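step: validate -> pass
step: tokenize input -> pass
step: predict -> running
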Amino acid sequence: MTDIQALQATFKGDIVQPGDPGYDQAIARWAKNAARKAAVVAFVKDEEDVASAIAYARRAGLPIAIKGGGHNPSAASSSEGGLVIDLSRYLAGVRVDADKKLAYVGGGAIWETVDKAAIEHGLATVGGTVNHVSAHAMLVLGGGYGWLSGAYGLAVDNLVQATVVTADGSVLTANASENTDLFWGIRGAGSNFGVVTEFVLQLHPQRRTVFAGPIIFSPDKLEQLLDVVQAWWDKGPSEKEGMLQVFTRGPDGQPCIVCFVFYNGSEEEGRQAYKHLLDLGPVAVMAKEMPYEELNALQNPIARPGQNAYMKGAFVPLTLTSSHLTRVFARCTALSTPGAFAVNLLLEYFPLRAANAVPDGATAYVRGLTANALCLVIAANDGEEVRRYMQDAARELIGMFAERPEDNMGYGNYSPDSDALVNQGSVPVDKAKLLFRTNYPRLQQIKKKYDPDMVFNKWFVITPA
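step: predict -> pass
step: emit ->
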């Protein structure tokens, strides 16, 4: 019996290999260009399946990737010639304990499922602003910003417990009293230490409807808009507010600025909170009172699956002048070519008081945060020249927010440059050090304890101490 046959004999889930029905679907990702031809895709049913898959891959010398929702365009959830542990088929459920205000979330669950399950009980937690992102490494384990961050901090700040399968096949509970070092490490350092099969997330009371949606401006309003938004940001928005500002081209190919606004209240309250924007004379106002569970679907049309995508982010200065952002807008729209490349520059204005109230060092995710900038480039085609254009465009625009872009890693989940792969037995760690900063030495000790052989090496890899 071969190793793969031995795995299949005890495996409860599904094993998919090249040539099997459904293989192409099994390796497909949110970003079309992030698909890789895996040797084995293991759709796991439980922790035993995860441990068996890890053991098989280690015996066979196969690199391992972990897929929750497959949303990372850097291909962190894919593995060329390796083994993918896929949580999305069988570990995607959500159970809510309304009395304790806790959600038990499968490692492959997407935020749409979390949002809908929680709001049935009048509850919610900090989740992604695109609801087909999974709860796994790309969001909860890597930080996690969302519309409720103003009130409750980051997703990692709302993680109460996790079930983790480590490199040696151990199934561990990590929380504030058990395996506390692991619990500290997974709150920010991604999947460096194992496969999380279940998250337990803190839930909070949430009204059933909110005011949210896009407000669209033409370029002639740009300077006024930028000044108004900066004044709003400087004043300090309340915990009920948040905004995503997007420099882009509309469906007609014309440059525009889209402000996705959020107010955790009624339409009357929301319109009053954003009166400063509405008074500028936007070309369209589609913000309205809507069911809470629709909030995280607002950006889905921009972030639809099956496109070729590249993204890069950075933290931005506390103050952004309108003259500077006007230059960014002009360059962004110039780089965007209708029918070939859609270049989008997003500025995330989520109030950060709650996130920054967590002491630096309380979790692996560092604090002292400022707003995020994200450049998302979508291409109609793929190929080396296309990829180079996407990278160059994103790096140029993000470079406009930092004198030394190489020192500004920004939000790790927005970085395509994570030094993910082992190269001849060694891993370059400069970018991991930049991301984790003073937390890096402690993370090295945790890596040594739980993954000394660097089995998990697909995202800002930590070198063991």
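step: describe -> The chain is about 30% helix and 25% strand.
step: cleanup -> pass
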